[in-house]
Amino acid sequence: MSVKTLITTGLATWLTLGWVTTPADASLTQAEAESRLERLQTEIAGLRKDLESNRKAYSAEQKLLRVADLEIQASVLALRKLASTRYGHEQELSRLHGEREDYLDSLDQRKEALTKQIMAAYRLRRESRLKLVLNQDSPATFSRTLAYYDYFSRSQAMQILELRQVLKTLDLMQAGINAELSALDVVQRNQQMVLDEIKNQRAKRQVIIDRLSSQIGSEEARLAELLRNRRDLEALLEKLPNVLADIPADLGKRLGPQDLKGRLPLPLKGRVQHAYGQPRSAGLSWQGWLISAATGSEVNNIAYGRVAFSDWLRGYGLLMIIDHGDGFMSLYGNNESLLYEVGDWVEPGVTISTVGSSPRSGAGLYFEIRKNGKALDPAAWLNRRQ
Known about the structure:
This protein has helices at about 5-15, 30-55, 60-125, 130-135, 140-215, 220-245; strands spanning about 270-275, 290, 300, 305-315, 315-325, 330-340, 345, 350-355, 355-360, 360-370, 375.
């Protein structure tokens, strides 16, 4: 089943369960849910394009940076898919090895039983059938002896047949194991190719970032850039609630940020390099946290909600915004890959992205919590003692 099918199937289920405010939603079919999701994605994409078209100073380097980030994301997603494929092959390989061990144990047992039967038959047959005939006093005893010989013969034949079948099964299992090992080799080579490509893409991206940094050299230029980026984000946040008007207030009776204040999980573990309210640059202050983390580290969702934005935004790189209802949103910027799309519902604690880097701050996640568009101090909401 494709990712898109899973998404739309899940969306149809959620709509059917009545987790969306419109009463008519209960009768939505999967096709209607998919159509609704596509319209939602189109509206979000339109918001981003409006921001770009309204930006007069949209440099060639910024365009190249967006392309580079999206290319890296595609490679990272391909790498994660290969890792999942590899895990599947490893699980199958482990299962085959386990079955093979069971069959080998069964083979040893059958060999032991057959050996005992052969030894017993050898002892009985030390006297020839003719000698047995001459020495038998009772026809009934003679008949039982012949029947016993026949039983031994049939039992030995059955044991030999079973042994051959076990050996044949073992051959088939070994062939399956060899096939899985070959598949793993192919996956490993593909993974290495993708890793090499990501390394090259990151190097190209750094060249673009260096050019951008040289363009925004003065304090005045940095202030103008930060202000434009902030206005873009705030314009986006202002329009998102209208696009996601079907977010229910109670999210299906699930706990939201307001209920979990001070107990929300960290999006990832790392040192808070820059905290909310600290001076930033050119007289501005930080509106969220910049959490230091290695590139590729997994970022987790802090509370149940729906993906409102999952795309590249100037100044924030690959950005995910999750609407938690009741006016709360969480923002995750500077990502290297985004693992969910607009319209997806996401559980708390699930991995939603992987850490990338920003042009001026290096590797790490930029994180914000907002209520009705206003930035809040994450320190009052997150549990740092995890």
